[in-house]
Amino acid sequence: MPIVPDVPAHGGDQDDDRGAARTGGPLFRDETPPTPPYQAPSQNPQNPQEPMTSAAQPAPAPQKKSAGRDLGAAIGVGVGLGVVIVASLFVVKAAFVGVITVAVVVGLWELTSRLAERKDIKAPLVPLALGGAAMVIAGYVRGPEGAWVAMALTALAVLVWRMTEPPEGYLKDVTAGVFATFYIPFLATFVAMMLTADDGAWRVLTFLVLAVVSDTGAYAVGWRFGTHKLAPRISPGKTREGLLGAVAFAMVAGALCMEFLIDGGAWWQGLLLGLAVAASATLGDLGESMIKRDLGIKDMGTLLPGHGGIMDRLDSLLPTAPVVWLLLVLFVGSG
Q: Is 0.90 topped by the overall pTM?
């Protein structure tokens, strides 16, 4: 999962929700109330009888740009997550499957909690969590067929479980449950399926590196050179220049990873892989931004200091997983 801190800045490639509607006070936790306009004193403090002239009025102090998040905490949490991921990935593959499962269950909890709080949509968490865990394990043990069967059974369990409640809101609750089934555990299953190859650990590492590098390139280039908005109604902080940075960084990283990490890989395949990752990661980020804007929230949770919630780290990873899995199968096979 990307560990680049989400640091909003002028021209950067992060969400900027300053344009969202407010009913009073800041809507999001990383915003501060607007500073009232400066009002100069009406009298000269050295001579109370003499009104202060415009030339003598002190200029208002310049506002210092704020990062909006605890950068130190974000880096610390990111490093900690990276250590856990790499250790589990290269020591015991089954342990990494456990990491994926935990991330899926927590992500489902965050999403269903926000849906209930903001939209009064009560997607049943119990069948989602159990089915989501089963989906990841089935994908690792039985491959794509196992993942599809587990997904179908999870969707059926959601339909049946919700029948124990009153019928009011049944359609919207089960629709949200089926959406959550596909959005989080099914897409995450492709990471587990990458792991089953002989060089599976290196495939997963390539997937994670490309996603992180894409996010880093988008942020770095967008912050420095970004002037043209990419999708202002969805994510005002994202720029076209940032997207180009994501593509360039990811293509270079992809060429290096395919040449040196993947058995039988070639550098030109890495260029195509990096391009696809930059596109899917950006679309995934925009997709979750749409969800959060519809819910009227800045972050999906507060579990990871400086980052938000688990879903705020999975937004670009989830849609990227099937893209990387498929391209690696096409380029070097599934073994």
A: no
